[in-house]
Amino acid sequence: MARRRTLKILTIATAVLSLFLTLRWRAFGLRIAADENNVIRDIQTIVINGSLEPPTQYISGNSYQIMAGTILELFGFDNWLALDWIAPIIGLISFSTICLITINFFRNSDDKMVWAAMFTPLVLWSFSGFVNRLTEATHKPFTHLIVFLLLYLAYRIGTSNRSQTRLLLVFSFLAVMLSTYNYVWATIYSTVALAVLFLTKGLEHQALTRNTVTAISLFCTVLFIPLTLPTTTLHIRYFRQFVYAAYSTFGSGTNTEPPSGSGEGSLAGWPTVDVFGAEISMWFIHVSGIIVSTLVAVLAGIIVVVTIARRSDDQRFSRLYLAVGLMFTILVAAIVAAGDIATLKRVIILPALIGVLYTVHYFHRSVTISSRQRNLLLSALFICLLFTAPLALPRALTNGEIAPTDTYADDGQVSKIEWYHQYPSDCLLTHSELDYRVSGKLSGLDPVATNAGGPANETDTVVYTAGEDNVLSCSEL
Length: 477
What we know:
By secondary structure, the protein is mainly alpha-helical. Helix content is 65%, strand content 2%. The chain has a domain at 409-477. The protein contains 20 helices and 2 strands. Strands 1-2 form a two-stranded antiparallel ribbon. A hairpin with a 2-residue loop joins strand 1 (272-275) and strand 2 (278-281). Helix 1 runs parallel beside helix 5, helix 2 packs across helix 3 (63-74) and helix 4 runs parallel beside helix 7 (140-159). The longest helix is centred in the N-terminal third of the chain and has 27 residues, at 2-28.
């Protein structure tokens, strides 16, 4: 009965997200993310040339590009705009699978499974950037899925009383697979998963030896992949930014190379709303679900430390959250020091979600909380997230108004996308001077300067230039 209720909850959550994505597409049509452009240009190269040769536009991994290019060719798509409706379908599948994975942490407790099924979609929706990235035409729907699988396998291996050689092999295979999609993600999340392995299994000699060998071999593979594959490049500049930023923050140096995706000053452009006589930025309204999830995760972290210190009977899930919390505390500290707000938003969802799930676990395990008190507390948290999570969804719109500043196009870029709808594809071949951020996705063309004015500015409303007189030689559709 409980498993049937869990399935119904997940079906409703997926249907709601599907409805939202459909309405978004009907209201705003095509959308373009800055992160997608280089990926799409590599996919176009694969479709046209049948292979991907260095130097590539996206240097952190190419598995997604190869897979997407192959799918387009297999199904006979000659227009990469097909990815605009294929990607959200993949995102829905990824969303549902991630929910199933997190729920299976409690597969031995029907009651906890139901609560996990209720909380997981709401926490994921609270992070609008996560919803956006699951529907992008990039590696992220796949890499997010692999990250949750790695974490779940690490927990299964670490809490099993038997040797799990097969799961260890699958774990290593997934980590290597992740590194071919994006080796930076593989380095970060493999470290987190290995920390879960070590802390959940404990420091017994046999487990420690096996896990150490696994960790060494895994890291050698993950770190050497970007150095051995010809189309992947070690992203030295990205890591150098963190070193400069950390030195600027903690030392006496000056950060001369600001990190990519810095969110400095982004709050200044947000409208304000009057709440009981106080002017509050709408940004805080839209991220209220994130604030609630984060506060719960911090409270869960305190409970974990106390639980482990008291040596409670069942510490397995406590050790899981301890490993995730410790690793992400270090990671978040480095990111905040570097000022890379965009990356911060991408990584905090995992500890927030595990923190909420740990709260469910703790309320069920605690002997000091009655079943009535437990249900009241969890119901209150559910209602709170039920009201705050939908407030984040407007930030997942693609109309260039309140969407995350580091992700989607502004009003000028949206007008260009609308222009592309009005003319046939041969116009795009005729007029090659297009905006860099949209040309790669919508036409596959590099922006080529055809006059002294140079390529169109990405924030300008000018869509094309066809010579001195700006005469368009194509008729509208």
